[in-house]
């Protein structure tokens, strides 16, 4: 488990460095990637049955939230 955590941390550090020099539009994609790194499980899910709530909170929200949620412009993305 420590190896997975450390590799996730290393990947996030690399993405943060890219984020610093990225354009505003590109930063949204980096935000999506960081959210996915934080929320996706470590195991393969090919043979698992995923219920609706887990699908929304673990897979859809990390992708859509950085794209649609903009509190500075009063555009809030709420489920």
Low-confidence stretches: none
Strand content: under 5%
The number of helices is 3
**Cα-to-Cα separation, first versus last residue:** 31 Å
Q: Whole-number radius of gyration?
A: 14 Å
Q: Quick one: how many beta strands?
A: 0
What's the helix-strand series? HHH
Largest sheet: none
Oligomer: single chain
For the record, the count of structural domains works out to: 1
Gross morphology: flat
Structural class: mainly alpha
Q: Which range best describes the helical content: under 10%, 10-25%, 25-40%, 40-55%, 55-70% or over 70%?
A: 55-70%
Would you tell me the overall average pLDDT? Answer: 83
Characterize the structure shown.
- This protein has helices at 2-21, 24-39, 52-68.
- The chain has 79 residues and is mainly alpha-helical.
- The protein has one domain (2-73).
- The longest helix has 20 residues, at 2-21.
List the helices and strands and how they pair.
Layout: H1 2-21, H2 24-39, H3 52-68
Brief characterization of the structure:
The chain has helices at 2-21, 24-39, 52-68. It has 79 residues and is mainly alpha-helical.
Can you give keywords for this protein?
0% strand, 79 residues, mainly alpha, flat
């Amino acid at each position: 488990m420590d190896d997975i955590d450390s590799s996730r941390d290393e990947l996030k550090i690399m993405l943060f460095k890219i984020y610093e020099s990225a354009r505003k539009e590109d930063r949204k994609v980096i935000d999506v990637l960081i959210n996915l790194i934080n929320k996706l499980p470590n195991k393969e899910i090919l043979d698992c049955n995923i219920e609706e709530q887990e699908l929304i909170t673990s897979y859809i929200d990390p992708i859509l939230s950085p794209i649609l949620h903009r509190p500075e412009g009063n555009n809030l993305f709420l489920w």
